Inverse folding.
């Protein structure tokens, strides 16, 4: 049980408190999430004598190439750099592999703890309430002046790859250190609760449709007040993809069409009100200029900066190093990320990008096929995974980050939950 409590503590910290608990070591940093993952892994190995209980599943075929290449790049890229640069550049690679063990722990603990998914769902429920609740307070302080921004108990700050510290006072970020993480997490929660309106699953924690609908709306609020255009587009598209797959999978379509119509009508009303009456949300209006090709619009200046500077630099690195530099480019060259695909291209070339697409594409197909294999025919977890992968792929086009970030642990947990509900023959 010690191992399981450490596992739950890891999920809790990664989702709710990832910005807290950083230690500087040898020019790099160790986070509380790193420590908790290591403790969870060690405790499990000690308690169960190193035996991981798994299912006979092909999902490992999709995951292994990406993780092996990630680890290989950390070693291959170390040559020719000083020790501080190696530590900073290789740390994201090592963290990515370390965090992936949460996938194994999720599956293995499920054999002893049948209610594991319900417990994860409770943590997610607490997380969305705390994150969006606090971000509403931040949003009010930033755009309406009440309460004063300086009086907030937690003020998000971000350390750039160049080492500069900046206060996040232009958008709500919750207890995270950047608004994009708030939009990303809220988008995933919107997918979880939207799916739970059609299929019961433990990730929603409750089966009460009214509560689930309220939580869904709360999640949408989190996406909106993060003011991240990519998060908004990715969430909308992911919800549409999930709804399409649900429509194709159910025979009784009338309740689904009713809920979808309600969702669309409500969305039109909410978005119209916000875009007209709240100046802060004018940022989303720039999406119309984007799709119309009006690149000279001042509201698209940030996007042009990404294309002309960050993206151009990453492509230049790839052209100079066709097989990548090995180490994490933003930490080595002090660049922004701003596109996970271009970051991986500069880090490991086309093989690394292809392994990443093989990884997520394989799990997407696995989730699609899993709809008919789950023990519970009303299980919505495969649809959750389909939606989440859609969101991650789309948001990765124009936003950076890496699988070494603490909140990405949630994805490994969700993938583990998918395998649990396939429930194929067990191996020791």
């Amino acid at each position: 049980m010690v191992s399981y409590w450490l596992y739950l503590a890891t999920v809790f910290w990664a989702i709710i408190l990832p910005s807290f608990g950083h230690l500087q070591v040898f020019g790099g940093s160790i986070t509380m999430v790193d420590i908790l993952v290591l403790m969870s892994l060690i405790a499990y190995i000690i308690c169960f004598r190193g035996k991981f209980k798994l299912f006979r599943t092909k999902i490992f075929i999709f995951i292994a190439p990406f993780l092996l290449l990630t680890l290989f790049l950390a070693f291959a890229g170390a040559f020719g750099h000083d020790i501080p640069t190696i530590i900073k550049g290789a740390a994201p690679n090592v963290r990515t592999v370390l965090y992936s063990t949460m996938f194994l722990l999720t599956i293995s603990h499920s054999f002893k703890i049948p209610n594991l998914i319900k417990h994860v769902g409770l943590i997610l429920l607490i997380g969305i309430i705390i994150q969006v609740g606090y971000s509403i307070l931040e949003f009010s302080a930033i755009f309406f002046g009440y309460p004063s921004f300086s009086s907030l108990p937690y003020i998000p700050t971000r350390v750039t790859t160049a080492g500069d510290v900046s206060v996040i006072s232009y958008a709500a970020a919750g207890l995270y250190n950047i608004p994009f993480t708030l939009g990303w997490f809220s988008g995933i929660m919107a997918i979880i609760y939207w799916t739970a309106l059609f299929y019961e699953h433990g990730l929603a924690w409750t089966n009460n449709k009214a509560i689930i609908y309220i939580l869904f709306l709360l999640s949408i609020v989190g996406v909106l007040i993060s003011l991240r255009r990519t998060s908004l587009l990715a969430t909308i598209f992911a919800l549409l993809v999930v709804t399409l797959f649900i429509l194709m999978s159910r025979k009784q379509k009338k309740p689904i069409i009713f809920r979808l119509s309600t969702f669309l009508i409500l969305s039109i009303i909410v978005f119209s009100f916000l875009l007209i009456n709240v100046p802060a949300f004018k940022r989303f209006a720039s999406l119309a200029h984007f799709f119309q090709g009006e690149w000279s619009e001042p509201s698209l200046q940030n996007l042009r900066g990404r294309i002309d500077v960050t993206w151009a630099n990453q492509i230049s690195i790839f052209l100079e190093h066709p097989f990548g530099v090995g180490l994490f480019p933003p930490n080595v060259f002090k660049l922004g990320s701003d596109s996970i695909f271009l970051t991986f291209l500069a880090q490991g070339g086309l093989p690394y990008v292809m392994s990443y697409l093989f990884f997520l594409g394989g799990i997407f197909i696995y989730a699609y096929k899993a709809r008919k294999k789950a023990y519970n025919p009303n299980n919505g977890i495969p649809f959750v995974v389909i939606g989440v992968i859609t969101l991650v792929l789309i948001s990765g086009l124009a936003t950076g980050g890496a699988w070494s970030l603490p909140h990405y642990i949630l994805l490994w947990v969700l993938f583990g939950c998918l395998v649990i509900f396939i429930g194929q023959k067990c191996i020791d």
